[in-house]
Amino acid sequence: xxxxxxxxxxxxxxxxxxxxxxxxxxxxxxxxxxxxxxxxxxxxxxxxxxxxxxxxxxxxxxxxxxxxxxxxxxxxxxxxxxxxxxxxxxxxxxxxxxxxxxxxxxxxxxxxxxxxxxxxxxxxxxxxxxxxxxxxxxxxxxxxxxxxxxxxxxxxxxxxxxxxxxxxxxxxxxxxxxxxxxxxxxxxxxxxxxxxxxxxxxxxxxxxxxxxxxxxxxxxxxxxxxxxxxxxxxxxxxxxxxxxxxxxxxxxxxxxxxxxxxxxxxxxxxxxxxxxxxxxxxxxx
Amino acid sequence: xxxxxxxxxxxxxxxxxxxxxxxxxxxxxxxxxxxxxxxxxxxxxxxxxxxxxxxxxxxxxxxxxxxxxxxxxxxxxxxxxxxxxxxxxxxxxxxxxxxxxxxxxxxxxxxxxxxxxxxxxxxxxxxxxxxxxxxxxxxxxxxxxxxxxxxxxxxxxxxxxxxxxxxxxxxxxxxxxxxxxxxxxxxxxxxxx
Lengths: 285, 193
Description:
The complex is a heterodimer of chains A (about 280) and B (about 190).
Chain A: E1 7-12, H1 14-18, H2 22-35, E2 37-41, H3 50-56, H4 58-71, E3 78-80, H5 83-98, H6 100-110, E4 120-122, H7 123-130, H8 132-138, E5 147-151, H9 171-178, E6 182-183, H10 197-200, H11 202-218, E7 223-226, H12 229-237, E8 247-249, H13 250-257, H14 264-267, H15 275-280
Parallel strand pairs in A: 1-2, 1-3, 3-4, 5-6, 5-7, 7-8
Chain B: H1 23-31, H2 43-47, H3 58-67, H4 70-74, H5 78-81, H6 87-91, H7 98-112, H8 119-135, H9 140-151, H10 158-166, H11 180-184
Helix pairs in contact in B: 1-7, 8-9
């Protein structure tokens, strides 16, 4: 893709990427720019409600997510990186489609239209639509057979109401294998990381995280690549199992393969330093 | 190897006075989930990553809702342990949205002031919502500090917190929504609006 026809896409970062996982946000921006995508951050976006809103008050969760939909221009897709935000936004849109009265009430409340046709997609979808061949053309740093376990966590699971929507099984490894990585998939790629229980019940989360990482190592992976910033954090802070295994955000490895050079700022923020592995693989100096 | 020792069921025997006829219909109405379709295949319990931390596996919660064990269900740990990862609902052969049932049960438990089996988890959710109401976004450092003050366990996870601070993963200042009244009004019940 040429820089002259930058494709404009609305972008919902979500709270994790805006704060604790800035490295994911920065690397995503970097990768997008190389690919000729212009991610336009949704003006004055708010938290999608996360797990806590629907846990205590489903309506509050739907309304919080719906406000973000009211801010999105309807004529271009809204890209989301965080799987939980993606589910919340899609569920809110589906709910509004089934509740015309509630839909009108929220539009009146904020004085803004809420499009029911707005396309809400994960960033992976953008890459898949662009085509792996185009992606390879843009890549300037081969991943040199880096053995990674694609970790989806619960990204791929969704409530029955969303079953007919886009499914991303296999896309993490498709994209990164096209860029020279070696996917290791015979492990717990889809086991939930423990999500918010990490705050109040770390004792429940630690064994889960250890099990996931141990399965990756047993299958021969050198690192894990996650689709979700919350998973990335949980896998880093709750692992008590033997060796420390680097846990990457998908966007970091993507940006690295596409030739981004300001990786020090991202990798330096990891609690498990991934630089020794990447140096040994000849990917960074 | 000896076969596992079989213990008697730890649950007290069922009393008829525990059963409430309309409970299943109420949960169905509130959750929008046809939970009478559950035929107890236990796929949900087999796949659930958290089942060992629950007092009832998800299928048993559904069964007890069907029977009308209102108090047992609303006071169960299961409804708070569930993180809605949707592993169960993706695998359920009847397409039952189990996390949506859990949402409805938690809301009922809060409305009725039922005993909360996992008060720390509830405290955490309350702090997240406090942050969203105030800033429009989740401010992690603020959430964790207020949560710690609530549960009074200052030293648990101190090492993790300090590491995250050192890596500047916990912003001191909250990122804020400009039109914050649009958010805060969502927290007022509509009849007060």
